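Summary of Year 1 activities. Much of the first year was spent building the evaluation harness for sequence design. The harness presents a backbone, in tokenized form, and records the residue chosen at every position. We chose the following record to illustrate the format because it has been used consistently in internal testing since the harness was completed.
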């Protein structure tokens, strides 16, 4: 039989939702949901689905994913995170709510190295959550702040999500990296303002100001690690290397720092680091394959075209359409990992954004920031789960603080929707050729 668009959409979505409700991992649920439709439609064969999965892996840019994960793991294992924390302490630790500001600052610094929010939540959380509790901070606030600040790992460049987005949507990764910098700083500022408010309300402790020598020593200790984003982002923007090559540079640089400069990574540690990197990279890449097959079937049955026609008919304009796009990414981010969502929802909504005259880079930043918030919102909320496990809480216990901390971050997202030049200013200035 020839399956209609409505029936195909119903089979895919209902099948996927049922599989997720049965607690089957999302990556497997996406692949299994395609099976009934392939069996029903005479035009499709299992080999077509497998071919789409293979084609999604046949991308040079996706090689950057495991290398950025490797760089993050080397940074954590090499105790480089500790050096960043010490530097953050002398910068902001003396302010009201000192360790809270340190939490935010070190997440911003670590985001410029790893490109992974989960690595940020795990690496920084293991050190800062116990330290904050010891200093007298409420443990629920410490968990919520660590989870929310870790989302900057995929917003501040380099970012694994931006690399995947650039590869899938054929958008300049260098432009995406630059576009994420200012929104990431604004989100960091919003978090620090929230911490200041908490500190005043709950009278959190304040430490003494550091001496000039302490600031200098901490800066010298961390400066080599802070060169990583300069190498990675700068080399891409200048056109010297591709995103994949920059990821290899980041991993190689992290390896040199850990093994030969700081000497905190041994050959024995290297085996575990490579194993963990391979395990997490395989999960991400398998999700890319099954999501690509799922998304291709949606496109095969003209679902994106129907959505575009519907949205164009409503005539929301650029701002209204951007708000609808952000809302859809926020909703999908509640249930699905960011990478499959980019491939499925991003490819469907890209023509909608084009029809509404939303710049591809702005569309990407709105989508990525919205999906980043999904890392701290249940039921998916991976960064929240990691932070809560470290702090010894369940998710329900910390949701009140998460909601309070997340609200100013959502306001930054709204600001970008209304003033898209916030995202475009830096790439327009440093990569004007991309906008010609």
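For this record, the design step produced the sequence shown next.
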């Amino acid at each position: 039989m020839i399956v209609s668009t409505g029936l195909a959409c119903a089979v895919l979505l209902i099948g996927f939702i049922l599989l997720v409700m049965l607690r089957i991992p999302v990556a497997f649920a996406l692949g299994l949901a395609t099976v009934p439709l392939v069996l029903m439609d005479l035009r499709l064969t299992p080999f077509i689905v497998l071919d789409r999965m293979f084609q999604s892996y046949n991308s040079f840019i996706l090689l950057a994913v495991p290398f950025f994960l490797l760089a993050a793991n080397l940074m954590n294992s090499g105790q480089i995170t500790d050096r960043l924390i010490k530097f953050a302490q002398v910068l902001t630790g003396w302010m009201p709510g000192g360790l809270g500001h340190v939490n935010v600052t070190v997440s911003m610094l670590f985001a410029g190295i790893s490109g992974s929010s989960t690595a940020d939540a795990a690496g920084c959380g293991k050190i800062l959550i116990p330290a904050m509790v010891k200093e007298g901070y409420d443990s629920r606030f410490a968990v919520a702040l660590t989870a929310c600040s870790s989302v900057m790992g995929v917003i501040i460049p380099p970012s694994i999500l931006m690399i995947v987005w650039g590869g899938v949507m054929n958008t300049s990764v260098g432009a995406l990296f630059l576009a994420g910098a200012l929104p990431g700083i604004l989100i960091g500022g919003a978090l620090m303002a929230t911490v200041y408010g908490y500190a005043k309300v709950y009278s959190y402790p304040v430490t003494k100001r550091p001496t000039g020598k302490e600031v200098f020593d901490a800066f010298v200790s961390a400066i080599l690690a802070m060169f990583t984003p300069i190498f990675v982002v700068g080399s891409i923007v200048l056109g010297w290397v591709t995103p994949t090559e920059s990821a290899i540079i980041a991993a190689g640089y992290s390896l040199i720092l850990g093994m030969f400069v700081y000497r905190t990574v041994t050959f024995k540690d290297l085996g575990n680091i490579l194993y963990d990197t391979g395990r997490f990279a395989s999960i991400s890449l398998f999700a890319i394959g099954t999501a690509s097959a799922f998304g291709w079937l949606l496109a095969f049955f003209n679902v994106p075209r129907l959505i575009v026609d519907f949205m164009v008919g409503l005539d929301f304009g650029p701002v209204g359409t951007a708000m609808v796009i952000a809302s859809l990414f926020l909703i999908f981010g509640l249930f699905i990992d960011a990478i499959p969502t980019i491939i499925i929802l991003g490819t469907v909504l890209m023509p909608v954004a084009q029809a509404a005259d939303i710049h591809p880079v702005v569309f990407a930043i709105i989508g990525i920031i919205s999906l980043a918030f999904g890392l701290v919102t249940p039921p998916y909320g991976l960064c929240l789960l990691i932070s809560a496990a470290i702090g010894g809480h369940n998710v329900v216990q910390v949701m009140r603080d998460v909601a309070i901390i997340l609200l100013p971050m959502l306001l930054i997202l709204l600001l970008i929707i209304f003033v898209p030049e916030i995202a475009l200013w830096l790439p327009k200035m440093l990569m004007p050729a991309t906008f010609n």
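Residues 15 and 202 are 48 Å apart (CA to CA). Quantitative recovery figures across the full test set are reported in Table 2.
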